[in-house]
Amino acid sequence: QRPPKRRRRREGAAPAAEARDSAGAAVAAVPSREGSPEPDWAPKTGVPSFAPDVKVVRWVPGKCQYEYKDHTADIQIHSWGDSVEECFAWAALAMFNYMTPLKRLASSALSAKGSAAGTRVPGNANMGAHEDDDEDDANDEDEDAPATEPTVGHSFEVEAHDAHSLLFAFLDELLFNFHTTMTVCNAVQVLPIERGEGTWRVRGTGVGERFVDGVHEQGTEIKAITYSAMQIVERDEAEAAAMESADESHPGSKRRAELFVIVDI
Question: End-to-end CA distance of the chain, in Å?
Answer without folding.
Answer: 23
